[in-house]
Amino acid sequence: MADTPEKSIFQALLIQMKTLPLPSGMTLAGNVVLPGVQFTPQATTKYVSFEVHFNTAIRTDLSLQIEPIRQGFIRGNVLWPKTSAQVDAIDLAGIICSLFSAGTKLLQSGRQVRFDQDPEVGVVVTGDTHFTVPVTAFWQSYPLVPA
Question: Distance (Å, rounded) from C-alpha 91 to C-alpha 144?
């Protein structure tokens, strides 16, 4: 049985998340929280958490025979201890933006996931121990076209 479109999209996004270049002292295993992975940070832990969200599928034909355009977004949250330089968190948010910049195309199981616009860096949110810099990148996955 072939993978569902949703599984292929999720895998393509996950593979790209794992290529995030991290600042010195940070590692994928210790400082990046991927979807579905348990993580308990300390008050002094610098880390990035990723979420994948699926939105509405858009039907483009009246017959409902052609697969829809699927769309959604990735949220990357840079969480930085309040005792650390906020500019470093903003810098890492910029690196996440470049990872999912406009023109990025990901392929998985014959499916393409595209980013047609640059990500946006949101308002910095201050929590009890960390401040959060959210980055939102919107993606689309177009129907497979038979050869």
Answer: 36
Q: 11, 2 in Cβ contact below 8 A?
A: no
Copy the structure tokens of residue 46: 């610098």
pLDDT in tens, the chain (147 residues): 678 999 999 999 999 999 999 999 999 999 999 998 989 888 899 999 999 999 988 888 777 777 889 999 999 999 999 999 899 999 999 999 999 999 999 999 888 999 999 999 999 999 999 999 999 999 999 876 654
Give the count of beta carbons closer than 10 Å to the beta carbon of residue 60. Answer: 11
For residue 17, the 8-state DSSP code is H
Cα dihedral sign, 25-30-36-41: negative
